[in-house]
Amino acid sequence: MHTDPPDPLLVELADSMLERLPELARELAEIVSAAEPVLGDSAVVAAEDLYLTCRDNLAQAFRGLAAREPFDDTAPRENGRRRAEQGVPLATLLHSYRVGARFIWNALRGAADERGPRTREALLNHAETLWLGLDEFSEVVQGAYRDVVADQTLRTEREHNELVDALLSTGTTVWASADALGLPRQGWFCVLAAEPGALPGELAEALGGPVVWRRTAGEELGVLSVGRPALPEFDTRGRVGVSQPYDRIDRTADAARQARLALAAIEPGSRQWAAYGDRPLATMIAGAGGTALHLAHLVLAPLRALPERDRALLLDTAWAWCESGGSTGDTAAALYCHRNTVRHRLNRISELTGLSWDHPIQVAELVAAMRAIRLN
After folding, report:
1. Which of 186, 190, 172 is nearest to 247 (CA)?
2. Which of 69, 227, 255, 319 registers the highest number of CB atoms within 10 A of its CB?
3. pTM (two decimals)
4. If we measure between CA atoms, which residue out of 307, 278, 299, 288 comes closest to residue 375?
5. Can you give the residue ranges of the PucR C-terminal helix-turn-helix domain (predicted)?
6. Which residues of the chain have pLDDT under 70?
7. Phi and psi for 173 in degrees, rounded to 5?
8. Please, which residues have CB within 8 angstroms of residue 118's CB and are 6 or more apart in sequence?
9. Which runs of consecutive H residues, i.e. helices, occur in 36-71?
10. Cα 266 from Cα 112, distance rounded (Å)
11. Quick one: fold of 8-152?
12. pLDDT at residue 2, as a whole number
């Protein structure tokens, strides 16, 4: 625990404690077990296991007092890992080390008092170093414990993700995966695809059924057992796509595709959810991927020669006109301009693109192009 030359008085004191090691280890094991009953529960930690741990830690502390060997973290590190694997709570484990530290100090102080004032003074002079060493024991234990918990969490998460991935496949493992994840094989289900952070944590309770998640950096995908063929309204913090309800768990893969398309059909920056089928045009555009965006640029290519501000003004006006149901008056009111201004801007788009706002198919082409731009 220190690098200074050993004090002969402390060496003698440490040797006397090492001679009593089995007795002291048994006493400490009883004290720890009384302070933390879970460590005395043979179903969790065997009595012999607790005794050996106490013996090894006491030996390390006493040998360190005599400066016979450098600090060796093997015993506390192994104890931290083993207790984590046994399911002992970290708070319990750390408390046991505080109990152990007090026991070591009291045992050393009592033995030093029996040897006289010089030994007592030597121990007191060494107290700070001793306590720092005992604190280091606790830090090592805590670090090793958390390493195991982190490994267990990663392993559990990996196994969970593998089950969800199997559920989202079309293979023969779908049924077994559903069983392992606690989902029924039949009933009413839906899949939700959301931006990270878009869904509230209490969603499962709000929607009334068990849900399993597959979370990545760019997506949160949930398979939800809803118990009925309709999804109630729920609040979101971002964009969420929802599949059509389905009644057999082996149809989850297709539902996931629907949910992702429904998500892609919502404009970026929105805070709303949409079901597959709510926005047919936007969904078809989203499903076309890069092709839709490429064609949109071709349709609107003549506008690219305009300054960005002018181009945005024309497209925003056209989109407002579409959202108002083709009403020039409502569009003018929404944009705080005159009706003739709206007509002029629409006519300008027609002149540049060669597409007429009076021709249904050409209007559809313009709307589809604008929708593709807005979705991307």
Report:
1. 186
2. 255
3. 0.61
4. 288
5. 314-372
6. 1-5, 68-71, 154, 200-209
7. -90, 0
8. 9
9. 47-65
10. 76
11. Globin-like (1.10.490)
12. 44
